[in-house]
């Protein structure tokens, strides 16, 4: 019987072939894999989701005119308006695109605002009331600020904050165009508000700066040019500081609405979990509007917050938050509602 051959090349696998080319993963590959993991769908379906163009959505603005008259004016122009049952005075425009309707006189006069449904939902869930002191911590371009002003008929006291001077200028123009009168614009780092205004506001809206995955359109030119894992990790640290500052500004019994237009758990559930661990009087609550019969038709575009992802566990109560999947009806978004006990 012959002597058994001893293998001595353990550093190389048995099937090693130096002529086999190495496989490189592109940015697109990483993005698709990550979205499939977060949304819990096959990779093959990811591109379909991010290849959809959003339908044109408008909300009629009661601060600049009678919404019934505005509706008649748009119908006279031949606009095909499809109402949204769960959002007052809100419509899909089925036969016009955003670029076209932004040029008409009614828009220039502030009679309606062009706004995505996910963004509209955030202001509705906040549910500000007349006489409430409201902080919109990262306000520009002003869509949610002007919506809150409209919903409260200019009877809430709103502070609209922004960090950059250039963005406050555009914010001021929007507020004037759409008639948000009881609104004060401030130029400040939102992370400082907790020190400046502790226990002050009844409602706080924090639409945090984010990686913007919900806005990505994969058929566009260089769709991932602003997206990276490094950016996600950097932003998540800022978001944790912002949400803590926002929570500190709340009165006891007040409501904080946290939203982003990204799908990342690190920027969403992880941020909420960090707040809950630091502040035992913070409580995530159900989104009543989303759970209502009026919203039933749109429920298919949402999924509950996730409690485990990529080896990390999040607070069980984040299941009460929602992730909105990108679609032609609603852009990708995340919403959590928190009360201060």
Question: How are the secondary structure elements laid out?
Answer:
Elements: H1 27-39, H2 43-49, E1 56-60, H3 67-76, E2 81-83, E3 90-93, H4 98-101, H5 105-108, E4 112-114, H6 117-126, E5 133-136, H7 143-151, E6 157-162, H8 165-177, E7 183-187, H9 193-196, E8 201-207, H10 229-249, E9 250-260, H11 269-278, E10 282-285, E11 302-304, E12 308-309, E13 312-313, E14 322-324, E15 333-340
Parallel strand pairs: 5-6, 5-8, 6-7, 8-9
Antiparallel strand pairs: 1-3, 1-4, 2-3, 9-15, 10-15, 11-14, 12-13, 14-15
Helix pairs in contact: 1-2, 6-7, 10-11
Keywords: Cytoplasm, Methyltransferase, RNA-binding, S-adenosyl-L-methionine, Transferase
InterPro entries: Methyltr_RsmF_N, MeTrfase_RsmB-F_NOP2_cat, MeTrfase_RsmB-F_NOP2_dom, Nop2p, RCMT, RsmB/NOL1/NOP2-like_CS, SAM-dependent_MTases_sf
Protein name: SAM-dependent MTase RsmB/NOP-type domain-containing protein
What can you tell me about this protein's structure?
- This protein is α/β, with parallel strands linked by helices and 341 residues long.
- The chain has a domain at 117-340: 3-Layer(aba) Sandwich (Rossmann fold).
- 31% of the residues lie in helices and 21% in strands.
- Strands 5, 6, 7, 8, 9, 10, 11, 14 and 15 form a nine-stranded mixed beta sheet that branches. A four-stranded antiparallel beta sheet has the order 2-3-1-4, covered by helices on one side. Strands 12-13 form a two-stranded antiparallel sheet.
- Strand 6, helix 8 (165-177) and strand 7 form a beta-alpha-beta unit.
- The mean pLDDT is 94.
């Amino acid at each position: 019987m012959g002597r058994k051959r001893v293998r001595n090349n353990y550093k190389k696998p048995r099937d090693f072939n130096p002529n086999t080319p190495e496989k490189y993963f592109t940015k697109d590959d990483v993005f698709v894999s990550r979205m499939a993991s977060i949304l819990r769908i096959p990779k093959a379906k990811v591109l379909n989701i991010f290849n959809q163009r959003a339908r044109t959505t408008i909300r009629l603005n009661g601060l600049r005119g009678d919404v019934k008259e505005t509706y008649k004016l748009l119908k006279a122009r031949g606009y095909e308006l499809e109402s949204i049952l769960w959002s007052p005075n809100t419509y899909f425009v089925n036969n016009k695109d955003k670029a076209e309707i932004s040029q008409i006189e009614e828009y220039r006069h502030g009679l309606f605002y062009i706004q995505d449904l996910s963004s509209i939902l955030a202001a509705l869930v906040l549910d500000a009331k007349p006489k409430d002191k409201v902080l919109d911590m990262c306000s520009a371009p002003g869509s949610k600020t002007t919506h809150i002003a409209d919903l409260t008929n200019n009877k809430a006291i709103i502070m609209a904050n922004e960090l950059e001077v250039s963005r406050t200028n555009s914010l001021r123009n929007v507020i004037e165009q759409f008639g948000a009168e009881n609104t004060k614009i401030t130029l400040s780092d939102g992370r400082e508000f907790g020190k400046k205004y502790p226990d002050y506001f009844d409602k706080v809206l924090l639409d945090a700066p984010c990686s913007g995955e919900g806005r990505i359109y994969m058929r566009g030119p260089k769709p991932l040019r602003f997206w990276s894992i490094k950016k996600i990790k950097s932003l998540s640290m800022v978001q944790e500081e912002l949400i803590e500052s926002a929570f500190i500004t709340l009165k006891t019994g007040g409501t904080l609405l946290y939203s982003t237009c990204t799908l990342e758990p690190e920027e969403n559930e992880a941020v909420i979990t960090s707040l809950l661990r630091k502040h035992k009087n913070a409580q995530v609550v159900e989104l009543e509007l989303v759970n209502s019969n009026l919203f039933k038709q749109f429920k298919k575009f949402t999924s509950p917050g996730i409690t485990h992802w990529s080896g990390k566990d999040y607070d069980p109560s984040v299941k009460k938050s929602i992730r909105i999947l990108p679609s032609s009806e609603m852009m990708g978004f995340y919403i959590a509602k928190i009360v201060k006990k």
